[in-house]
Amino acid sequence: MNTSCAIYIVDDDESVRTALGRLLRSCDFNVEAFNSAREFLDFITPEAEGILLLDIRMPSMDGFELQEKLNALGSRLKIIFITAHAGEDDRERAMRAHASGFLQKPFSDEVLLGLINALMPENAGGKGS
């Protein structure tokens, strides 16, 4: 897999961050994990590229609010929502706001890695910079 792509994880559940981080690092991805949307916003720049694995339900600022803020900043991050509590409204809302994917927990490693691989710049149909 292409390891030049950064993958960011934003989830308030430490066990989810740890498990996803281990999986992605085992595939040689560059991974940064954050326990809140605010912590991620303080870190990221609008020019950053990569893939964001984003939980929907988090305290203070939820995943949809973070997505809106990133869109307003002109972010080029590709967002994959991951959630344990999804309704069809959540999926539709995410996709209307240009999310690149939506996974309901639990999901298999293969499904996640397949989606990430499809979003890699060399596989995304020329949608890069």
TrEMBL record:
<feature type="modified residue" description="4-aspartylphosphate">
    <location>
        <position position="55"/>
    </location>
</feature>
<keyword id="KW-0597">Phosphoprotein</keyword>
<dbReference type="InterPro" id="IPR011006">
    <property type="entry name" value="CheY-like_superfamily"/>
</dbReference>
<feature type="domain" description="Response regulatory">
    <location>
        <begin position="6"/>
        <end position="120"/>
    </location>
</feature>
<protein>
    <submittedName>
        <fullName>Two-component system response regulator</fullName>
    </submittedName>
</protein>
<dbReference type="InterPro" id="IPR050595">
    <property type="entry name" value="Bact_response_regulator"/>
</dbReference>
<dbReference type="GO" id="GO:0000160">
    <property type="term" value="P:phosphorelay signal transduction system"/>
</dbReference>
<dbReference type="InterPro" id="IPR001789">
    <property type="entry name" value="Sig_transdc_resp-reg_receiver"/>
</dbReference>
<dbReference type="Pfam" id="PF00072">
    <property type="entry name" value="Response_reg"/>
</dbReference>
